[in-house]
């Protein structure tokens, strides 16, 4: 539609519907152009000017699975794989043939730094020099927290028993496996001597879980004044009691043992005293799970005859489980062990 000038003779008046349509188009045009012409509001102002709903935010949740790995406890016994690995190391270092070497002269020729002196020679030097630190006279007693006799420093007590010191590890491995021992268990050794076996139990068990009754003063001296400090095991607080006659009263009335053992001890004790000890300990052995192990023989029992022994054990609340043998890892030796338990009550 054309708009005519007012003076034109052909001018015609606009109709009302046409005028309304024209105004609507103009309003629409202004509405479309206005946002582009207006300045962008500041972020702070936009919060007040916009009444729009908050945008929809999609949250993605990622599930993270955390796996807690608990380290397996150290194995008690040496495995065949361990032995195979060690033999391979000996072979790769040309050490395997040394096992066949015979004679002191041939053995000593192999030395490249190991002190060849005997224990007697070492003891002589220690005594001559007032200890390995060579402190003189009045200063000789003020530099050592735990002064130790020279005989212990050269470890003469390692030869005081009937088999090599290394045999203590064999005893520990057998007993720990046979009794399914765990660190929280309570253990009693009857006659722990210089801790040839006990050191391994003390290291394995939690603090205060190892008890021992020992009558020999020199053995106790070696255990307390040398072995525990030298092995860094004082913090384990084993309870080592000097005593005999199977008197366990110092260990307390409420203690319950998971393992009680006597390694080559009952051989040297009268049968009557052995039975006294069993009577006092039977009630302190944990029912069903607890074990008593005795090495070498059980003549205190067999001398009574099988039926009589079984009857006396039953009176104490004990029963015989069986006989075991255990081979040594390092030398030609095996031990025989006899197992007893307390049936469930």
What is the compact description of this entry?
This protein is α/β, with parallel strands linked by helices. The chain is built from 12 helices and 7 strands.
Features:
alpha/beta; 345 residues; Rossmann fold; 11% strand; 35% helix; disordered N terminus; seven-stranded mixed beta sheet
Task: Give an overview of the whole structure.
This is Methyltransferase type 12 domain-containing protein. Helices cover 35% and strands 11% of the residues. The chain is an alpha/beta fold and 345 residues long. It has a domain at 163-341: Rossmann fold (3-Layer(aba) Sandwich). The protein has a 7-stranded mixed beta sheet. Strand 2 (210-214), helix 9 and strand 3 form a beta-alpha-beta unit. The longest helix has 22 residues, at 16-37. The protein is globular, with a radius of gyration of 44 Å. Mean pLDDT is 81; it is low at 1-13 and 35-64.
Count helical runs: 12
Mean pLDDT: 81
- Biggest sheet features: 7 strands, mixed
Q: What's the N-to-C terminus distance?
A: 116 Å
Task: Tell me the total number of β-strands.
Answer: 7
Question: What is the assigned CATH homologous superfamily of the domain at 163-341?
Answer: Vaccinia Virus protein VP39
Find the CATH topology of the domain at 163-341.
Rossmann fold
Q: Residue share in helices?
A: 25-40%
- Rg, Cα atoms, Å: 44 Å
Which strands sit side by side, in order, in the main sheet?
3-2-1-4-5-7-6
Q: Which second-level CATH architecture of the domain at 163-341 applies?
A: 3-Layer(aba) Sandwich
- What is the CATH level 1 assignment of the domain at 163-341? Alpha Beta
The best one-word shape is: globular
InterPro entries: SAM-dependent_MTases_sf
Protein name: Methyltransferase type 12 domain-containing protein
Organism: Brachypodium distachyon
